[in-house]
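Co-fold these.
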Amino acid sequence: MKPFRGKTLSWQLNQGVVHLVLDRAPCNEIGSVALAELEEFVAALQHVERDAPALIVSSARKEGFCAGADLRELYRESQGLDVEKRASGVRDFLERIHRVMNALDESPLITIAAVNGIAFGGGLELALTCDLIIADKMARFCFPELRLGLIPGFGGIPRLKRDLGNAPIRDLLLTGRSINVGKAQSLGLVSQVTAEGGALRLAQATAAQIGKFDRETAIAAKRFIKPIPREELQREIDIFCDLFARPAVETGLRKFVESADPLPYLP
Amino acid sequence: LTSFVDFCWKGFASRRSLYAGGLGCLTHQVIYGKIGLMTTLDQTTEEILQLAARHFHVAPGELRPDDDFFKKLGINSLQTLDLLTRLEQHFHIELPDYELQGVSDFRTLAERIHARL
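Predicted complex below.
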């Protein structure tokens, strides 16, 4: 695997561990460029699946792990389009991002999200594709999508339901509140907590531990315990697109883009 | 333990002297929770002011309970979440974001936190 440095992320293979680093100001929002680079990454990942035991996903931004979808781009790109074209464009984007997320979710590598700061919306959904979430004590997690008249669209609900059950989803989704790392760990979302700024180091230590185990056994264990909820993921896309076609969403997006509110993620 | 309780009790007489004595970095739970002491709203407010001053590099004593913390600290949305996280950790509480809606001064923030202690 050749090292790669793109506009929004980079990756390298070092001592048997693949390291994907998100790096786009202000907080790794996922738009069309990031999506294209993530697609390149999962294609490259296939070539090292048998050679590397672990993948770490982290952020180079001190602001946080990932603030989710690039809502400003979504709003900008949907301007001037009729409802049908808007819905068609967003469905295409969602189907592409779902392919990326599913590829990460079912990768034979043991995957670790090293989370600092915020993991909101699509950022939380990206972390949820990983087998383990290791977070520093300043991490926060949130599904703010209802604020916009939407549901999470990158596969977050089915994955969180698979991993934690239904009640924690209702709490996060229906209130739109963010939770700190202590709460996230008590729910089982976060496996290990470290001091501020220490998530990557702990993820690297965990990856080194994972590398000691027999690869075939680790792959079999992961396949057994982590099925991809494909039917619910597809339903999520359908529901998201139905909701997205409503005028309320455009209003919500405009409000977000134009907001000077110091807490724009609040519902 | 007795001497520690005695030290904390003396601190009640002058909250500022408690911080001056080097306890400003300790969490609320360490100072009060473990030994079952009650706090007043003024003490909660003072702890918030100290914490905000320390983490956002404002001179101690420059912050007042009625100050607008967005303006006074010059913080954006991400830094507000940072403050929220530090407050939750310090007081060992959960404070949902929507509890902060419409809140901009330290005193009201302290009231919201104090109600959860």
